[in-house]
Specification:
Number of strands of chain A: 11
Shape of chain A: globular
Largest interface: A-B, 35 and 30 residues
Distance between the termini of chain B: 36 Å
Largest sheet of chain A: 7 strands, mixed
Oligomer: heterodimer
Radius of gyration of chain A: 14 Å
Distance between the termini of chain A: 35 Å
Number of strands of chain B: 11
Helix content of chain B: under 10%
Strand content of chain A: over 45%
């Protein structure tokens, strides 16, 4: 089925460990992004990409790395996990910028706990 | 102060009631999204608006650009409408389609 696929859904990490959250979409979307969701706060943008080979920082990029080698995939890497990175992470994609018909698709979320 | 404010934060209703969730923003925008987050966490897009009003089934979304305000209405509410409803705006001038600014969400509970 078409959509945004995120893995893993749940992960527990020890402080200092690294890991990669995977995100893939099969809709040929140019725009992909990673958000984190914390209690009492709206979703906040970590990194985004406007096409293969192009990435940029969002609002809260520290401690995270991204790459976009293909249109389909946009992995998020935690370089050295910290308890402050305990959160729910969402990947999202959309076809283009602008236009009223530009629906955003979200992945199911990844629950990450850093102990 | 958040650029996007939603009210109320929590809302409990009885099945069948008419529900209104409000979103106010303080920046110029090119579009506003209403999203629904299910209890399991998944987020789906309900509407994207740049002006006027949209309707889909029992859901109606309106926006007043001059007043920087949008409302999401649910008619004949049902327990399956229980979810978090999130308002998000695309700030005017943003060059990336993925850069949205989000409200904190409104937790809606509809009791049978």
């Amino acid at each position: 089925n078409a959509g945004v696929t995120q893995t893993p859904k749940f992960q527990v990490l020890k402080t200092g460990q690294s890991m990669t959250l995977q995100c893939a979409q099969d809709m040929n979307h140019e725009y992909m992004s990673w958000y984190r969701q914390d209690p009492g706060m709206g979703l906040r943008l970590i990194h985004y990409s406007v096409g293969a080979g192009i990435t940029d920082q969002g609002e809260v990029p520290n401690g995270y790395n991204v790459s976009r080698s293909t249109t389909e995939d946009f992995p998020l890497r935690l370089l050295s996990a910290a308890p402050s990175q305990t959160s729910v992470y969402f990947c999202a994609s959309s076809y283009s910028w602008g236009g009223v018909g530009n629906t955003i698709y979200f992945g199911e979320g990844s629950w990450l706990t850093v102990v | 102060k958040n650029e996007v404010e939603q009210s109320p934060q929590n809302l409990t209703a009885q099945e069948g009631e008419f529900i209104t969730i409000n979103c106010s923003y303080s920046v110029g925008i090119s579009a506003l999204h209403w999203l629904q987050q299910h209890p399991g966490g998944g987020i789906v897009s309900l509407f994207m608006l740049s002006s006027g009003k949209k309707k889909h089934g029992r859901l109606i979304a309106t926006i007043n650009i001059q007043e920087k305000h949008s409302s999401l209405h649910i008619t004949a509410s049902h327990p399956r409408d229980s979810a978090v409803y999130i308002c998000a705006v695309r700030v005017e001038g943003e060059t990336s389609g993925s850069r949205l600014t989000f409200g904190e969400g409104t937790q809606l509970t509809v009791n049978p």
